[in-house]
Specification:
With 69 residues, the chain is an alpha+beta fold. The protein has a single domain, classed as RNAP, epsilon subunit-like (Ubiquitin-like (UB roll), Roll). It is 25% helix and 33% strand. It has 2 helices and 4 strands, in the order E-E-H-E-H-E. Strands 3-1-2-4 form a 4-stranded mixed sheet. The longest helix is centred in the C-terminal third of the chain and has 9 residues. This is DNA-directed RNA polymerase subunit epsilon.
């Protein structure tokens, strides 16, 4: 399953909407995704599954790239 993760690049950084970034990652569950990203110094704001029409919409975006961690 593919998940979209909204995060700040620095865990010590205060969450500011304008600095929020996102990435796509494959995982079994939200917990699995968080474990995969635990070694990164990210402040993870939100993790959501991307399926169905939402996945098709995101894949149509030129920025869509699934990260392998």
């Amino acid at each position: 399953m593919i998940f979209k993760v909204y995060y700040q690049e620095d865990a010590a950084q205060m969450p500011v909407r304008e600095r929020t970034k996102s990435l796509y990652i494959e995982g079994e569950s939200e917990a699995d995704v968080r474990l995969k990203l635990a070694k990164q110094n990210f402040n993870i704001e939100y993790v959501t599954a991307v399926t169905g029409a939402y996945l098709e919409y995101e894949q149509a975006n030129s920025d869509f790239k699934v990260v392998n961690i």
